[in-house]
């Protein structure tokens, strides 16, 4: 029998989850829940039903895992504890500083209902966190570095779009190659914010807008750009649509550490992602953890879990025997 | 209270484990068991005792986890099931083809005694296996590539040393950069053995030996060298001792795969290790899994386990709360 999946929220992430379900033949998409009028939402999967999110509780016996595809700022803090009352749920909550608080709220809801709620599943937090954990376990005497990009930062693109005179914008975060190489060499450098990443902005100005003023507002914007070397390119809307419509991302987690009786031996562990679509890759991770959540819950496990709590064997469709024969 | 560690076998790996225990303040090395005369074995840790491996059962209540540092060919198939009767044990069994058989024998011994026996812990099998598993779970539609090196292959070095007229030798396995780049680009190339790795040999010939004949014997040796582009350098014993005494190794696991409704989006996941000492890095992994074995066994779990069965949280000294706050 297939694992029955529900998706709550049908934006980039929800559509990515729909595609990911299709690649896994032990799963089946049953429902897409939306806050919009269901008749206006058209999905790709024949056999799945679009429902209003108001009616979600009516379907609590029809799906095994609900993937909550909402935003971290306001959606998930409310949705994840709420829906953990009726479903095994997965979210990709990514406000790092607020994870402990989110965990507590979700954990008490999920324990009460006997479901599993996996939070902060994705690549950062998620796969990057896992790699930090494994590398820290192996090399307790060492140092972590995380680089992001080259990739599109949605938050920074939005910040540019809010500037007066800007019609559209796309911002790329780019790791500084010299910094990456210094880390890979095991030199354990101290790196300032400016030394780790640069920011490149492609901006469409409204007709008659003051480009010099826009550029100045961007490069001096506190938190977002002031601490970085930022390059601004003005281009046409056609160029932006043609050359910058993808949502690529990626990055690296590198830990460099020492072993030996006198810490005399160096090692470097690197995990690197190059992604053509940030939401589609995140969705694929969500789906693997949905499988784990379902299996762990059928074993009687409940409460809030993160990627740290999940043995890798739960993520794969293959049996332990097959894994030992083919992947070990 | 510290986790009490015993080491069986005091070669490069055993010494590495001793160093790794020192870096983890929740662990304590209690005993080193050796097949040699204990009075001839001198260890680094004050407070630990060297004992004959014949007396190992006398100490079954004195240690929490026994790290078995033996060879995969003949030692581990016998030792791991045997000692799983009295101890939680960890080994680094690395004969990939024989893992299923080893698992079965160890599993029945460990289940009978109520202990945990973790097998095939290291970096390949081990961390590379984990990365294959995670990447396969995320990108079911894709392809795995494993490259080894640049690093010393002990087996190939030994094979050269067995050739008539060879006094000493060191062999390096080197990934072919063009092949690695093709894989990283997401091209999913078909790669022959020769296209993936080259082999470089540093050989000390005995006085008066026929170097041309030695070189011919190396490059045509079936299984070991015939399928590779192999370079042979004759050097002096002094040069070998000066420039090639380390045991560096490493490599990469790369999975390239596609997502999207029509498999239109490419992603590449890469895990890379650069290690100055193969045995010291392997030892550090063994110690992290010793912590996991101890904790899982105190929770009542027993039987044979691999890295696939261990939730990452068991590997780290820090609490779940600390992990979520600092690593997630």
Helix/strand layout:
Two copies of one chain form a homodimer.
Chain A: E1 3-8, H1 12-22, E2 27-34, E3 49-52, E4 65-68, H2 75-83, E5 88-90, H3 99-113, E6 116-118, H4 127-138, E7 142-148, E8 151-152, H5 154-161, E9 166-175, H6 177-184, H7 193-196, E10 197-205, H8 211-219, E11 229-234, H9 237-243, E12 249-259, E13 265-275, H10 278-298, E14 303-305, H11 320-326
Helix pairs in contact in A: 1-10, 2-3
Structural key phrases:
homodimer, 328 residues, 11 helices, 34% helix, globular
Short description:
Two copies of one chain form a homodimer. Chain A is 34% helix and 27% strand.
Tell me what you see in this structure.
The structure is a homodimer. By secondary structure, chain A is an alpha/beta fold. Chain A is built from 11 helices and 14 strands. Chain A has helices spanning about 10-20, 75-85, 100-115, 125-140, 155-160, 175-185, 195, 210-220, 235-245, 280-300, 320-325, and strands at about 5-10, 25-35, 50, 65-70, 90, 115-120, 140-150, 150, 165-175, 195-205, 230-235, 250-260, 265-275, 305. Chain A has a 7-stranded parallel sheet with strand order 3-2-1-4-5-6-14, with helices on both faces. In chain A, a hairpin with a 5-residue loop joins β12 and β13. Chain A is globular. The two termini of chain A are about 25 Å apart. At the A-B interface, α1, α3, α4, β13 and α10 of A face α1, α3, α4, β13 and α10 of B. β13 of chain A pairs antiparallel with β13 of chain B.
């Amino acid at each position: 029998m297939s694992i029955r999946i529900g998706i709550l929220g049908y934006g980039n992430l929800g559509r990515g989850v729909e595609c990911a379900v299709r690649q896994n033949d032990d799963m089946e998409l049953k429902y897409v829940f939306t806050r919009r009028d269901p008749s206006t939402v058209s999905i790709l999967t024949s056999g799945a039903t679009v429902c209003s999110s108001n009616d979600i509780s009516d379907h609590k016996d029809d799906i095994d895992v609900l993937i909550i595809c909402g935003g971290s700022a306001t959606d998930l803090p409310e949705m994840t504890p709420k829906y953990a009352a009726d479903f095994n749920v997965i979210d990709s909550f990514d406000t790092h500083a607020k994870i402990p608080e989110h965990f507590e709220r979700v954990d008490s809801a999920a324990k009460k209902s006997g479901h599993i709620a996996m939070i902060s599943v994705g690549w950062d937090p998620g796969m990057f966190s896992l790699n930090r954990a494994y590398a820290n376990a192996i090399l307790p005497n060492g140092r972590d570095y995380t680089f992001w990009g080259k990739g599109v930062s949605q938050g920074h693109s939005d910040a540019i779009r809010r500037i007066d005179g800007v019609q559209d914008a796309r911002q790329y975060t780019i790791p500084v190659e010299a910094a990456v190489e210094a880390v890979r060499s095991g030199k354990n450098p101290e790196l300032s914010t400016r030394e780790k990443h640069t920011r490149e902005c492609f901006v469409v100005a409204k007709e008659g807008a003051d480009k010099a003023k826009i550029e100045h507002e961007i490069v001096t914007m506190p938190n977002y750009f002031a601490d970085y070397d930022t390059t601004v390119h003005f281009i046409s809307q056609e160029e932006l649509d043609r050359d910058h419509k993808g949502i690529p991302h990626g990055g690296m987690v590198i830990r460099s550490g020492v072993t030996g009786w006198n810490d005399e031996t160096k090692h470097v562990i690197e995990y690197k992602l190059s992604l053509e679509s940030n939401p589609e890759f995140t969705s694929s991770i969500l789906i693997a953890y949905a499988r784990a959540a379902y299996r762990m819950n059928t074993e009687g496990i409940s409460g809030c879990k993160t990627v740290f709590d999940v043995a890798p064997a739960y993520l794969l469709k293959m049996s332990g025997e097959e894994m030992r024969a083919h992947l070990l």
